[in-house]
Design a protein that fits this description.
The structure is a homotetramer of 454-residue chains.
Chain A: E1 2-8, E2 13-20, E3 23-27, H1 34-43, E4 46-51, H2 63-70, E5 73-76, E6 86-87, E7 93-96, E8 99-105, E9 114-120, E10 127-133, H3 149-167, E11 175-178, E12 196-197, H4 198-204, H5 212-221, H6 230-239, E13 251-253, H7 255-263, E14 267-270, H8 274-279, E15 286-287, E16 306-309, H9 315-325, E17 331-335, H10 340-344, E18 353-355, H11 357-365, E19 371-374, H12 378-382, E20 390-391, E21 410-413, H13 419-429, E22 435-438, H14 441-447
Parallel strand pairs in A: 3-4, 4-5, 5-6, 10-11, 13-17, 14-15, 14-16, 16-17, 18-22, 19-20, 19-21, 21-22
Antiparallel strand pairs in A: 1-2, 2-3, 7-8, 8-9, 9-10, 11-12
Amino acid sequence: MIFHRIKSDVVAHLSYFIASGSEAMVVDPQRDVGVYLDLAKDQGLHIKYIFETHRNEDYVIGSRELSHYTGAEIYHGPWPDFKYGNKLKDGQLFKIGNIRVEALHTPGHTPGDMSYAVTDLETGDHPVLVCTGDTLFIGDAGRTDFGGPEKRKEWSENLYNSIYEKLLPLGDHVLICPAHGSGSVCGSKIAERETSTLGAERLMNPLLQLSREEFIKLKIEEEHQYTPYFKRMEKFNLEGAPFMGLNPYIQSVNPHEFKEYLDNGATLVDTRPPPAFGAGHIEGSYNIPVARLAMGGWVLPYEDPVILIVGNQSDVDHVARSYARMGFDNIEAYLAGTIVTWYKEALPVKPMRMITPHDLKKSLDAGEDWFLLDVRTKEEYESGHMRNAVNIYAGLVPTKLDGLPKDKPIAVYCKSGTRSSFVSSILLRNGFENINNMLGGMTSWIKAKYPYTK
Amino acid sequence: MIFHRIKSDVVAHLSYFIASGSEAMVVDPQRDVGVYLDLAKDQGLHIKYIFETHRNEDYVIGSRELSHYTGAEIYHGPWPDFKYGNKLKDGQLFKIGNIRVEALHTPGHTPGDMSYAVTDLETGDHPVLVCTGDTLFIGDAGRTDFGGPEKRKEWSENLYNSIYEKLLPLGDHVLICPAHGSGSVCGSKIAERETSTLGAERLMNPLLQLSREEFIKLKIEEEHQYTPYFKRMEKFNLEGAPFMGLNPYIQSVNPHEFKEYLDNGATLVDTRPPPAFGAGHIEGSYNIPVARLAMGGWVLPYEDPVILIVGNQSDVDHVARSYARMGFDNIEAYLAGTIVTWYKEALPVKPMRMITPHDLKKSLDAGEDWFLLDVRTKEEYESGHMRNAVNIYAGLVPTKLDGLPKDKPIAVYCKSGTRSSFVSSILLRNGFENINNMLGGMTSWIKAKYPYTK
Amino acid sequence: MIFHRIKSDVVAHLSYFIASGSEAMVVDPQRDVGVYLDLAKDQGLHIKYIFETHRNEDYVIGSRELSHYTGAEIYHGPWPDFKYGNKLKDGQLFKIGNIRVEALHTPGHTPGDMSYAVTDLETGDHPVLVCTGDTLFIGDAGRTDFGGPEKRKEWSENLYNSIYEKLLPLGDHVLICPAHGSGSVCGSKIAERETSTLGAERLMNPLLQLSREEFIKLKIEEEHQYTPYFKRMEKFNLEGAPFMGLNPYIQSVNPHEFKEYLDNGATLVDTRPPPAFGAGHIEGSYNIPVARLAMGGWVLPYEDPVILIVGNQSDVDHVARSYARMGFDNIEAYLAGTIVTWYKEALPVKPMRMITPHDLKKSLDAGEDWFLLDVRTKEEYESGHMRNAVNIYAGLVPTKLDGLPKDKPIAVYCKSGTRSSFVSSILLRNGFENINNMLGGMTSWIKAKYPYTK
Amino acid sequence: MIFHRIKSDVVAHLSYFIASGSEAMVVDPQRDVGVYLDLAKDQGLHIKYIFETHRNEDYVIGSRELSHYTGAEIYHGPWPDFKYGNKLKDGQLFKIGNIRVEALHTPGHTPGDMSYAVTDLETGDHPVLVCTGDTLFIGDAGRTDFGGPEKRKEWSENLYNSIYEKLLPLGDHVLICPAHGSGSVCGSKIAERETSTLGAERLMNPLLQLSREEFIKLKIEEEHQYTPYFKRMEKFNLEGAPFMGLNPYIQSVNPHEFKEYLDNGATLVDTRPPPAFGAGHIEGSYNIPVARLAMGGWVLPYEDPVILIVGNQSDVDHVARSYARMGFDNIEAYLAGTIVTWYKEALPVKPMRMITPHDLKKSLDAGEDWFLLDVRTKEEYESGHMRNAVNIYAGLVPTKLDGLPKDKPIAVYCKSGTRSSFVSSILLRNGFENINNMLGGMTSWIKAKYPYTK
């Protein structure tokens, strides 16, 4: 049995390529399917089955694209009513070479979630791994809010039952293969470690230390963000996304062509690190550094053109592929030669202020009047924040501009300075002027031993 | 000015990527256009123009595919009546960054051939290179037989005039960038060296040492092969080939699925080296070693499936891409795990005999009766061949089987043993039984100092 | 916590790169350490510790080489008396970022074997994985014969105790990371699957289904090969192997230079597949196909030059690196342009006969007198072999030539035809003439439903 | 004949790999010789000769390193008295496969300069290319100042004679292969284009449009920079540089280890783009952006440790290799995780001011008192500069600090803003405080149509 875990960075999505003999299966393929085709080709394998764990909300699933190249059959759970592929029954069995796959209906995250228990018959008759989708993560479990408040209790109960009645009984020794890793919007407490077992989760996953009642209560009450692009993902994954073919290709254009795009209303994303953005950027751009591309899901349009400023030519591919995974097929051009070509044309640039924690501390101590904006999640905020800071999650800032003052300086901070740069760029776009992004974020503030509250 | 020469191995085709400032042009792009997209991307360049030198016969041109991704404008000569792109005027000028391109009408190979003289204005006002298409090669000049016998004189005269009136006057110092390198079916005497100048050709190209009359006479009389797949290339390049998208993907299948393909009449190509093929192959297969894939153009069908045996998994990509360049979009599957998986299933194999020159010599000396078949070109044959050998060019063997004896052993040879293996496999397919491929070919025979005639 | 498993193909050796925060550790590094340096570089990590599980016999350990580049500290067990690095105490603890490593003394395979239990403190206080070296494999356990017959009982008891008292108590949920995968000479029953847990082994590892007495008896009695090159590995790994630096570089030479090497007594290895070797090879060469390079450990010299014939230029690197891992720093040259350049020079070649199972069956049925030589391991032989076949393990054939007949045809077979080709080439080197390698091996014989005995 | 041009970016050095049959030669190899080994390996070639055109001043030559791996013989000219390799005679001939190389003594740049004329005997008896070293560039010719003022006339005359008596007579049609391309300190007017011919140079090279007297006068008078690291290159290239082996490997360290380096006096190079550096950098660092690493030759020490801040992890290799080519074997560490890890530790950072041309213009118009520092070359300065700007070439600023005012703002500019950022960082290191780097440099100022003088 051959096993590969494939990670899609930006959306922290994990897919699995599992093979035996000359046959292979893929669980939850990403949209750019070259990686699976290459694995199959390098080892002379035939991809026979594609299994989906559930209708994903946060990325485009590549099942149909992969099936196009390989003829593989697609299988998914009983909900929703997919427009492609085959519906599974609980307990349905498959054979791939010398391995047996059992499809387990594990509702909770959605009513249609499936898990796949894999037994390697070469070594024995006990399952060795289980693909748990969004049912069980390493250190967390799936969110249960996509059905709306009225379904939340039912779904949360289902989730508990699925974990305790379907997954854990497989045995402590079974590896778990979840659909998301650390950094996903589908589970905020997911560990950085990417391998675990049912036993390790039983012993250490914080949610599995709770009673049934506590678990369900927590699941009903926990807060999650619903990024606007989810809507499109739901539609794409229900019906099948448009065919992508060759990896997305983005035109390079010169400063004057770039300006023309801007004059025609294109949305501008600048993926450079915050300090570079701060030193000089084009008015109206969003700062979405490469490390946080997923933030684009909060603000980018689907129909109108999006254009890019990148720090390195080599980032273009990564940005294009990442946004294609989020269904953005409208990234049309990037500025050739980085922003230096813009500078050299003497075209207008604007700075964005950066402030060190030390300077901010001094200013606060001197009694200056600041609006402190903490753009982390509620959980992060509650774990320790600057005194008097107001918490609005980064993605929600565009909808809550009214509450922010234009008559005094705003210091924006997050954990390390990246999300706060995104937010600062949003504020600048919206006419706020005295915006200061705090270098190093709350991490730096705490390291400097400055006071904060919980 | 930036300059890249791109070589498509199997068809020995050369294309050119030339850029200045932030703009680029491509001359005669290959069908799999990723290489140009990557060059543009890595250097932040915008591909603005695609220039075709002529309607190619031996490979699929990628102009439309490249234009799809880049929006580049396509230009070509006045003949034939292309169904896409723009028609050029002799002397038409283009600007790419700081370079100037002049389109020169240089008919001869076809009535529509264009050359492109490039001047780097950064360094001065003299042209620095000229893309000569199939008009002038390094060591050779274009063939003039595609218009049929009735046009041959006129086209040959045109070719002479184009070289002497349009190209050479540009100056000895000008680099030439032809459309083909050594190994092309478009010129049998093309040198291995890939850089030259008009001056070097004027001094050393054998054709340019002839008088006008001699040149034209030679061009009218010289013999060329017309591979069957040319017909399709002409059609594709007139109308635009089907869109290819992602690089061709070929399924790996297991021995039983592979056998099913064969039972349904698929054409089988075995790309292993001749000795491996000789030691054991599947009945009915063509031996077309990786180094000689272009021979496939003589025998492969366009509509029905073709399937592959490869020596190394890593050859699959190369074979697929090479055949896609020749318009074969029907390579459907390859045997997973090389032929060993076939052996292990105890499925039937056949040997093909190899004979060393030493053993053949001994047998001939002993008076045994052999039919000696020389499958090289007429020119090669005439430059030295085994006594009593009959010359039939490899590609033509399928149409001349009647002249070959079934009642005595046939020794097949070429230059090194590759084309002769291809021919041997054809003979075996057609019921000939006593076929012997000579190891090391004529090269080996001569090295062994065995007698031969001219 | 970041985790990478690195596989060294030919010796089926597994090493591990584990990191947390900005620090990393490597367990049992291979000799060509670029892979670890790249992992560290790509993620901005500092390699702080190198842990060896034991004094290896089958490959050169890269600890000193890796420490040279990184300054990492090397740790190993209390036996033998290593000439470099630091000696560990049972239970000694280390901290790497946010993980804790506990060194466990797990003697058995040797008296100095160590295992390393890793706890990811980010997720909890239970160990999540254990590097088990040659103590516990997936589906097998370490061999206990390296101390000689007098130590075998004691070492086997130790092994049992180490597994039951040190490893299994860590918990069913703990991943195991052994030092070898399938194909290793260190454990013939190791599964192809490369991930498992203590629980899965407890449930399914055949050795862990035995009683203490059965386990120890089996360990004392099981047969293992001791490849001659082990001697050098033991010395290298005790003292530290010579510094390798840049990856090994092997000269390409032309046929005449190659012949000179041969005339001076160089050992010739031909890594082409058996059928190609059979069709024509240079007299005196060993056939060691790329897939079975480790067989070279049985016959290659350490001091005198070894030279290569490869099927593909691209194999040279793989062969060079693989043999460097086995301590062969004397691979000096390969024939440029594959064996075709040799053929073209009309230099002498010899065939090696291949026989299909069908032809062999016919001949046997016709009463012809064959010596059937089965060169698989004793275990493979006993699981089913041709009637009247004599079993000599491939590696031992050079020492048992006296028992083989020169007066009748010998059919050599293994599982698929590769080891038997190695043996056939040994027999040809030693003056045997009527040698026939069976295509597809026992696998093919069984698939053809021909009779065999157990 | 096979031909490859290899470019070493930072020092704009060009080397050549030329092969025929199974043999190859390399002209002026770079220090990291893997590229030549790979070319040889991929095509089954044996590197037989290494030719040096002259004792280089600006990069470490890799002849001895390459000879170590290949056994190739090294040849160079009669001056200076090299401690390795063989001395050539004018007119000495070599054979590589089917090509002939003639060594031509072409003194001028130094008394020992050699050129190598290459004839491809396969196509005829005229030379097809000539490696011209530092004698003739595309658009320029070698500098003649390394012998000091007293030798300058003689060397300049020699240079003229070498070009007119040795090179041009080879014929207009001959390709030239110089040792440097655009961006080299060895010729400020070298064209961006990398292919040319003797004829094209005769027609367009500005120096070849001059009379003998004008040429020699210009060569005697032209000004060149002598970067401090040249001294070490001269020594290394006379005696042979230290063996490098595996590519240079640089440790990643965490912020606290990094700070320790700084506290112990390490020199800090920050290779990020100027705006990022401006937004926040560590006090005392040099800003040497990746695109201008060669500036390091002016200020970096050879003995004491140098440490790095990079914008992208992936830059580390490029920086390490580039500085190794300049002989800096003392790059010891880089900050893991880019400067963000420094920010997060709340360690101190300093900004460097950037000013747009628009803001500077406004301020000047308002009568504010600025010191305008133009750090381009004298030639660039004279071709157009800001009114009242003082010209000090970037590399010379450290030696001319006394002339700069500490009591008023200094605006530093170059062509695009990179060298000026380097200079700004030098000034900050030296206690200047009111330093402003002009974004987009003189290019931007001119595009904005602001006034300037020549």
